[in-house]
Design a protein that fits this description.
The protein is about 30% helix and about 30% strand. The protein is α/β, with parallel strands linked by helices and about 100 residues long.
């Protein structure tokens, strides 16, 4: 039986492949009134006004200043699972140790 503390080589390969993908770059741009999928993109000094930003994988970069005005966020896939895990951890911390 494999030890759970070891990083699965399949996961390492997928992460290596993902980080090798060049990010589409947007610089000094104002996004307005649209749905913006942020995975696969680098945003340099961009602003988002009344947008819905969607994150699925977590493969993105915000560089410099990013302004968010009246925006909402959507999550799915691995990003949603990570958020769910963090929320569960925080909920358990507030409730105290399991007896």
């Amino acid at each position: 039986m494999a030890e759970a503390s070891l990083v699965d080589s399949r996961v390492t390969k997928v992460l290596t492949d993902l980080t090798a993908i060049p990010l589409e770059s947007h610089s000094n741009f104002v996004f307005e009134d649209q749905e913006v999928f942020i995975d696969g993109r680098r945003f340099v000094n961009c602003a988002f006004h009344r947008c819905r930003l969607v994150l699925l994988l977590g493969l993105f970069e915000f560089v410099g200043k990013a302004d968010f005005v009246d925006c909402s966020w959507g999550w799915g896939g691995p990003a949603q699972r990570a958020i769910d895990l963090v929320e569960d951890i925080r909920s358990n911390e507030r409730q105290g140790p399991i007896q």
